[in-house]
Amino acid sequence: MPRPQSSKDIATFAECRAEVDRLIAEKSELRRNLTAMETITRDRRHQAEELRKDKRQLIAKMDVIYRKQAANDKLKSTAGWSGAAIGCVTLLWAGFGNYGYPGPAWLFEHEIFFGFVCWCATTIFAWVARSYYEAD
After folding, report:
1. Cβ distance 114 to 81 under 8 Å?
2. What phi and psi, each to the nearest 5 degrees, are found at residue 134?
3. Which residues of 109-122 are buried (b: 16+ CB within 10 A; e: fewer)?
């Protein structure tokens, strides 16, 4: 603050007192504003924490849904591969029934041997499906 050049530049005691009263009123108003802002900020922070918590829960639910969907897709594709394997064996057995068996007929007519061939075909198709899906 520059030095006053004359006595007219110096404020009177009443002017100083009025200025101090104005500054005190301004200070109390600023304190009220600060308290209100801190309250709003606190509330917003709590809201933000709740939103983060909700976001984490939703992401976890989405992961579960995604995993379930992926499992369903794999189950459908696995069922398709398994069905294809059994279909091939069934067609092969139908062909053997019409054109003759490559070995003893009693062996090919037995259910245990048919089940074993179905298991082998399903296993082979599973290996092929696994290599197909791992290539992605």
Report:
1. no
2. -75, -20
3. eeeeeeeebbeebb
Q: For the chain, what is the total number of helices (H) and then of strands (E)?
A: 3, 0
Give the residue from 87, 71, 73 showing the smallest Cα distance to 125.
87
How far from each other are the two terminal CA atoms of the chain, in whole angstroms?
Answer: 76
Q: Which two tokens stand for residue 34?
A: 């600060």
| Cβ(126)–Cβ(83) below 8 Å | no
How far apart CA 19 and CA 26 sit, in angstroms, is: 10
Q: In whole angstroms, how far apart are CA 14 and each of 10, 17, 19, 21, 50?
A: 12, 5, 9, 10, 54
Question: For the residues of 105-120, what is the DSSP string, one character each?
Answer: HHHHTSHHHHHHHHHH
pLDDT tens sequence across 50-99: 999 999 999 988 988 888 887 777 777 777 888 889 999 999 989 988 89
